[in-house]
Each structure stands twice: as structure tokens, then as C-alpha cells.
Amino acid sequence: MAVCIAVIAKENYPLYIRSVPTENELKFHYTVHTSLDVVDEKISAMGKALVDQRELYLGLLYPTEDYKVYGYVTNSKVKFVMVVDSSNTALRDNSHSSMFRKLHNSYTDIMCNPFYNPGDRIQSRAFDTMVNSMMMQVC
């Protein structure tokens, strides 16, 4: 099951972080922020290929004992990070990719809102509901 979903701005500060077990919230913040180095490495390794292929899904960033961390980057360099419980073997790579696309579409809806200032924290009930449904869907 997904235990944490984060949206990170281009400048590497969090726009949105949601984690399911709230007692481990600080651990997930640390995990998300340490994954940003891996995201930057993958983006620089892909270089022009990232733009040419239009492949935004970065795949598995790194596994830990209990969790697997997946990444996705938009054309505007906004990063999505998902931490998944490694005991869940039902999830496949294509399901992660489709979940990131759904998250990206919801983020795009927020950016199209004229009352949202780009760079502010995401405080949308619709976005929060969508993330909660994604976390429950994965369970």
C-alpha cells in the first residue's frame, strides 16, 4: 500500500506531503527528501532523452527494507514521489505509472485554478480526496 505521496516544487521544497501512518510522518519526510538526490541523478542521466521520449515516469528510485520509493517528474520539473510498502507485491510498474499520471492530471487541475498561486502549498480538498482515494485504492 502507498504510505506517502509528495509533490515537490522545482526548487525542492514540498508543496504537498500526505502520509498514512501519521506517527511515522517525520520518517516519510526524510525519505522523500533523500529521494530528491536520486531524482536529480536520473534526470541528469537522461538529459535530452527525457524531453525527447516524453517519459516522465522515473520508476523505482530506491528500495529500503520496508518501503520502495518511486518517482515522476513533470515538464516543469515538479516532482512527485510515492513511497509504497514493499510487502505489497500486487502492484506492478504500470500501475505506479498510471497512478502518477492520475496525480499529474489532478495537479494540472490545481494549476488551472485562477485562485491558486504557483509555488504555494497545495490546500485543495479535491486534491486531498484524490490522494486519499489513491492510497485506499492501493491498499
UniProtKB/TrEMBL annotation:
Entry annotated with the keyword Methyltransferase: no
Gene Ontology CC terms, in alphabetical order: endoplasmic reticulum; Golgi apparatus; perinuclear region of cytoplasm
Keywords: Cytoplasm, Endoplasmic reticulum, ER-Golgi transport, Golgi apparatus, Transport
Intracellular or extracellular location(s): Cytoplasm, Perinuclear region; Endoplasmic reticulum; Golgi apparatus
Domain of life, source organism: Eukaryota
Record-linked Pfam families: Sedlin_N
Gene Ontology biological process terms, A to Z: endoplasmic reticulum to Golgi vesicle-mediated transport
SUPFAM superfamilies: SNARE-like
Annotated family: Belongs to the TRAPP small subunits family. Sedlin subfamily.
Alphabetical list of PANTHER family matching this protein: TRAFFICKING PROTEIN PARTICLE COMPLEX SUBUNIT 2
Protein name: Trafficking protein particle complex subunit 2-like protein
